[in-house]
Design goal:
With 254 residues, the chain is an all-alpha fold. Helices cover 71% and strands 0% of the residues. It has helices at residues 2-14, 20-40, 44-52, 58-71, 76-97, 105-113, 115-122, 133-154, 158-166, 172-182, 187-214, 226-240.
Amino acid sequence: MAFALSIVTLEEALSKPGCAICRLEHEAAIRLINTLLWENTNDPATRKPINNAYGFCPEHTRMLVAIEISNSGPVLGVNIIYSLLAKIVSQDLKKVRNRPQSQTRFSKVLRKWGGKFFQRKISVILQPQQRCPVCEMVEHSGKNILSILFEVIEAQDQKLIDSYQRSNGICLHHLRIGLENYMVQYPKSADFLIQDTINRLDTQQHQMLEYIRKHNWAYRDEKLTPQERTAWLRTLTFFTGYPAEKFNHRIDEF
């Protein structure tokens, strides 16, 4: 039953713009952060990997704040999590400052002539013990979804295959992960996904070349087809996973 529900969820994601795996990973990240904020903010076991990672990555930190503000207003969860993280980093920096440093004549010579060596040694300071826990969960979730995609295509499920071919497909990042992990186990699926991607890219490349050619003044009377107008968007979706509407004139401020 759970597997059947996963297939339905995948089919629904394929009916929407952008890479279906990216979309489902994004939704999984939202669910995890919601659970953290409303159920596990003060749970030591939940907080430990966050502390080990020195917090979330920038993207998931923004998501954490957005979810809490949009749902409750006061950012109590953010304050609870990051007040402790501020203390942890401060303590770790105090250890760095108090670390004994050898000032022998030999070490001074090395510092003078081996600056790159010391830079490499210094770079491990404040090294987190693990990655952003949301990133780790999202990566695991993505692999599970990819395994379902490969398994169902291998079984020649025509409904899902048709849904996939009508969709934007999967992005380069997830195609790479899928092939690295499931190509041997599901060779028919791998062949299908590779050939489907080749067909899409070859078609889009031709359409983009036509877009370029028809913008030449010599061919100004030739009209662009709808497919030629949007081929670049479908290509960028493959390289990024983003739906077409993400590519617009708006530039996010820092």
